[in-house]
Amino acid sequence: MSVQTRGRLLEAAKRVFSEKGYHGAQISHIIDEAGVARGTFYLHFRSKEEIFKELLKEVVEELKERIRVIDPSGDPIQQITENIARVVEFALEERELARIVLQRNSDPRLFSATDRFFDEVAAMIEGSIKRGVAMGVLRECDTEITARSILGAVKETIRWLLDKEDIDTFRIARELVEFGMRGLRRDAQGGGNHEGSGAL
Amino acid sequence: MSVQTRGRLLEAAKRVFSEKGYHGAQISHIIDEAGVARGTFYLHFRSKEEIFKELLKEVVEELKERIRVIDPSGDPIQQITENIARVVEFALEERELARIVLQRNSDPRLFSATDRFFDEVAAMIEGSIKRGVAMGVLRECDTEITARSILGAVKETIRWLLDKEDIDTFRIARELVEFGMRGLRRDAQGGGNHEGSGAL
Amino acid sequence: MSVQTRGRLLEAAKRVFSEKGYHGAQISHIIDEAGVARGTFYLHFRSKEEIFKELLKEVVEELKERIRVIDPSGDPIQQITENIARVVEFALEERELARIVLQRNSDPRLFSATDRFFDEVAAMIEGSIKRGVAMGVLRECDTEITARSILGAVKETIRWLLDKEDIDTFRIARELVEFGMRGLRRDAQGGGNHEGSGAL
Amino acid sequence: MSVQTRGRLLEAAKRVFSEKGYHGAQISHIIDEAGVARGTFYLHFRSKEEIFKELLKEVVEELKERIRVIDPSGDPIQQITENIARVVEFALEERELARIVLQRNSDPRLFSATDRFFDEVAAMIEGSIKRGVAMGVLRECDTEITARSILGAVKETIRWLLDKEDIDTFRIARELVEFGMRGLRRDAQGGGNHEGSGAL
DNA sequence: CATGAATGAGACTTCATTCAT
DNA sequence: TATGAATGAAGTCTCATTCAT
Questions:
Q1: Does residue B62 lie within any of the structural domains?
Q2: Is the CB of residue D175 less than 8 Å from the CB of residue C142?
Q3: Per-residue pLDDT tens digits for C101-121
């Protein structure tokens, strides 16, 4: 029975933190939403901070499962697209959690978990880029900046999607990958190079 | 004397909000930092919220000045690069302000100013893309998603730069534009390499 | 336990408001007097204003019970005397509350309850006077002024009694009624004296 | 010029205290109303309390002048009526001051001046009554209670008048004296006594 | 496990008063 | 005298956490 109560508290906290942010969320809101007494909360969580971190941990774990390391023997574009699709899908299934993670505020004690997670993701992306470059599939670039750019593109797009309905997850993912791979420039036709854009 | 004090309070608030976030920041911190008595704060600002919004307004105005509308008669890539360079430059000159703006939390009363600003920027970017497509310089794409992706790339990169020292603003801007234009894929033909962009 | 605490707070507030007036009274005084923590106060009352109004409501209700409409089939003087006696009695039993009500200050939000109450009492008195006049028992007069005069006489007398000890409530009431009925003038005829009223 | 400023401050304070009560009144209100700088206030008055007491003193002095001791060689009723008329007149000419004096709150430091004044008036009234009784003009009664009753009647009537317009001061005074002298009872016609009212 | 009344540190804000100009 | 920016004590209220039942 305890597990049930704990679960209801986590669900409630998810909704409340998502809607009100960490500081706007009060224990009262959470226990009201969960239909549980005040003392009961502290039976399951040591503090407001703890339940928040618990939620963060949950997302991070789920995301780690959805982001799979690229298998060099398969089509990398396909795999990247699927990774992103899975992430977008998760964000839209669990919008509250997504909103929580994509909130930021500068209390490092609170957000170090997500910060670390995003650092890891950035590192993963950077690794992939480096391999791609080494394999001659990707062009040379500043891998750190580019990795951050990709991460930012995905985060911002998801943040923006969070208020939309009826989303074709896979199309989004493809669009993102397309952008990351080809950029915006119109494909060079013959010996086309980017000087072409200089004609704008 | 009043204007001076007001300025010191704004400077102090900038530092404090940047370091502690809106909720972590206390009036005590601000007045200590400004070396001013408690009452003095309320002589210049009606509330904590007001001084915060004041700061936000400041950034938004400054950013609006640095982002110039693309002049079709000139080189657009060049202009975009310069826009981004100016934004990055501002973020690095005013790291505290940048940190404040890039913080997010879900109190809409507080952040509606930045939210609106970023929406405007996204709209500007989207407009540019559409024009580029119409002119046949940019490929067809989902302009909304792509605009958000670009915005996200810049934001995330800046956020990441905020902890770094000795940054070559212009190089960053070029790298961002390169990524946005060409993507990561290696240029189709043998000859293409990214040195080409050095010709910009 | 909650009801008990609430009661202790009300009792404490009664003492404190009575002694220091609304503005002089601080939450600290009330909770110290009640032996309760600061937060506990706000568990039971939304604000200082609320507990004050609560007290006011209490008095008004109690007074309304003690002031009975005159029954025309009985002796009106007797009934009026008893009404006044009951009011004086209440004021002396609950001197703190009486002091609170008889305080005035011009914050209408605060005192509208008593103001309204006294207006009602004045209206009741005026109605009685009018009936008395119509029945030919009372002389013609400006009923509004006279009603206010009677109200004022009772209020001022009670206010003055509040600092006295060992009071014969009924004697006070008789004296007030005597004054209101006969005035101060010596009875017209030789024989008349105030012992007559002793026959009441 | 100083005297002028001081006067403007007193006038302003009169309006403000009257409208907002002692605690509701702020120095800001007074100086705004007077069109004077903050520091200037403290050039003329040591504190908020002082200017308030100054105002109180003013009233008390004015009232003392208007209330004349009864001259036994003249018509006492006439003289009492004139006294009351003069008091009512003053209250209506200086409604703000009247409102201030008739406000009460239990801070004795603040209101001791009026309290003392009213005590004096009550004593004066009591003295008059005693003399009247000794001279055989007034009936025997509890002089203290009766004096307080009369005081209360006048105070409450004035308080009530303060919100009215176009008042016939003299009629009010006559009505009050009438009430105080004859009471409400219909004049005994023959051997009439108040048992008559028992017939109500 | 559950309850919910009680706690109290500490946040924001007000406003009478001071003082350098 | 006059000014008004600056002061800071003190007040009200909030809310995460505790604890007796």
A1: yes
A2: yes
A3: 998 776 777 888 888 989 999
Kindly report the average pLDDT of chain D as a whole number: 88
Q: Which two tokens stand for residue B47?
A: 């509330």
Cα gap A182→D132, rounded to integer Å: 112
* Contact flag for B and D (3+ C-beta pairs < 8 Å): no
Helix and strand numbers, DSSP H then E, in chain A: 9, 0
pLDDT surpassing 80 at residue B198: no
**A 158-187: CB under 8 A from B:** 159-160, 171-172, 175-176, 178-187
Query: Read out DSSP for C120-132?
Result: HHHHHHHHHHHHH
**Both C98 and C138 in a single domain?**
yes
Query: Is pLDDT above 70 for B1?
Result: no
The H or E element containing residue C82 is helix C76-93
Residues B68 and B18 in one domain: no
> Which regions in chain A score pLDDT beneath 70?
1, 106, 188-200
Q: Which nt has its C1' nearest the CA of C45?
A: F13
CA angle A169, A172, A176 (to 5 degrees): 140
CATH code for the domain in which residue D167 is found: 1.10.357.10
Question: Taking a C-beta distance cutoff of 8 angstroms, is the pair C198, D140 a contact?
Answer: no
The domain in which residue D39 lies consists of: 1-45
Residue A81 lies in a domain: yes
Q: Which tokens go with B164?
A: 């770094």
Number of folded domains that form chain A: 2
Share of chain B above pLDDT 70, in %: 92
Q: How far apart are CA B184 and CA A82, in angstroms?
A: 18
d(CA D43, CA C81): 55
**Residue–nucleotide distance: D50 CA to F15 C1' (Å):** 41
Least Cα distance to D67 among D121, D114, D117, D113 occurs for: D121
Centre a 10 Å sphere on the Cβ of residue C142 and count the other Cβ atoms it contains: 19
What is the nearest CA distance from A35 to chain B, expressed in angstroms?
24
Q: How many CB pairs under 8 A join C and D?
A: 205
Instruction: Report the C-alpha gap between B148 and B143 in whole angstroms.
Output: 8
The β-bridge partners of D185 are C138
| Residue A152, pLDDT score | 97
One domain, residues D36 and D25: yes
Let me know whether D74 and D123 are in one domain: yes
Residue D194 lies in a domain: no
Residue A190 lies in a domain: no
The residue ranges of chain C whose pLDDT is under 50 are 190-200
Number of residues in chain A: 200
Cβ neighbours of A144 in B, within 8 Å: 160
Residues D159 and D64 in one domain: yes
Which residue in the block uniquely carries the two structure tokens 């809607």?
A19
Residue B179's beta-bridge partner residues? none
Asked if residue C170 and residue C122 are part of one domain, the reply reads yes
Task: Count CB-CB contacts under 10 A for residue D77.
Answer: 16
| Single pTM value for the model | 0.88
My answer on whether D4 and D89 are in the same domain is: no
Q: Could you tell me if B29 and B58 lie in one domain?
A: no
* CATH number (domain holding residue C37): 1.10.10.60
Torsion sign, CA atoms B67, A164, B113, A22: negative
Tens of pLDDT, residue by residue over C22-35, are 999 999 999 999 99
